[in-house]
C-alpha cells in the first residue's frame, strides 16, 4: 500500500467527516480563521489588563461579550430553524470580520479606550448569539448523523490546534508590534472561512411548521422537551456548571501570569498554548473513538477531572508545573465538551435540535458573564491562584450533586432518526 492510499485509509477510518466535500470547505476555512480568533482573544485580554490593571474589569469585558448569548440565545434557536444556515453564517462571519478590523483600527491609531472595548465586546457577543447555534446545527446538514460526532471532534481539533498556534503567534506579535496587529490579522483571516462557506452546496433544513402560540411557546416546548429527557437534562446541567466555573482561562491565566508568576506576554502565550496542546490531544482522542458514539459516563468522568485540575493549578507556583496541569485540563475539557455536544445533537429530534443547541449555547457560553465576573472578583480579592481553587471546588461539588441526582440515568441504546 502506497503512502497516498494509506493516508486515505487513515482519514476514512478516523476522520471520516472529511470525506464530505461541504465539510472540507468549512473545516479548511476554520483552520485559518480560528488562528486569528485566538490571536485576538489573548491580545484583547492583555490589552485590557494593560489599560486597567484590574482583573475585575477584564472579567467585565468577557461578561459583556457573552451577555447577549445569555439574553437572546433561546430566541436565536428559533431564527436558526427558519432560515438557511449557510446564509446566516455568511452574515455572522462578515460581522465578526468588521468588528476585528474596527478594534485593530482603534489600537493602531492609539485611540482605543476601555469603554470602546466594552462596546465591541457586546456587539461581538450579539453576533455570536446567532452564529453559535447556527454552526452547531449546520454540522448535521453537511455530514449526516453517522459522521456528526467525528465532525464535532474535528471541529474541536481545529479549534485547539488554533489555540496552540494562535497564542504563540499572538504573543510574539504583541511583544514586537503590539496587540493591534493581532486584531488586524484576525480580520484578514475571516476571508478564508467566508470563501469556504460560499463553496458549500447543501440542501438546507428549514422548519416550516411553527406554533400558533408564538415564539415564547416554542421556547417553552424546547425547554420542556429537554427536561423530560434525563440524558439531555443531565448533560445540560453539567455543561452549565463547567461553562460557568471552569472555562474562565481568558481571565485567570493572564492575571496568574502577571501577578503570581510575575512574567510577561511570552509566558502568557506559552501557558495558553499548553492549554491548547492538551485540548488538541483530547480532540484527537475523541475523533479516534467517535464511531463508538457519545457516553454520559465520559462527561461525568471528565467534569470531575477538570474540577481537580483547577484546584491543582491554583496550588502551583511553577511555570512548568502550571503548563502541565493546564495541558491536562485542556485534554479533559475537550473530552467533556465534545462528548456533551454530540450527546445533545444525536439524542435530540430534528425538529427540536436547533432549540436544544440554543439552550446548549445559553448554558455553555451564556453562563460566562456570571463565571467571568465571579472569577474576576475572586481573583481581585484573593489572587488568581485563589480563584482557581475556589472555581475548582465549586465545580466538583456541583457536578457531584448533579451526578447523584441523575444516578439512575442510563445510556440510550438507539437513536431516533427524524
Descriptive notes:
With 418 residues, the chain is mainly α. It has a single domain (16-201, 215-405), classed as MFS general substrate transporter like domains (Growth Hormone, Chain: A). 82% of the residues lie in helices and 0% in strands. 57% of the residues are buried.
The CATH homologous superfamily corresponds to MFS general substrate transporter like domains
Termini Cα gap? 40 Å
Over all CA atoms, what is the radius of gyration? 20 Å
Helix content range: over 70%
| Coarse morphology | globular
Label the CATH architecture: Up-down Bundle
Structural class: mainly alpha
Subcellular location: Cell membrane
Keywords: Cell membrane, Membrane, Transmembrane, Transmembrane helix, Transport
Membrane topology: Multi-pass membrane protein
Domain Major facilitator superfamily (MFS) profile: 1-410
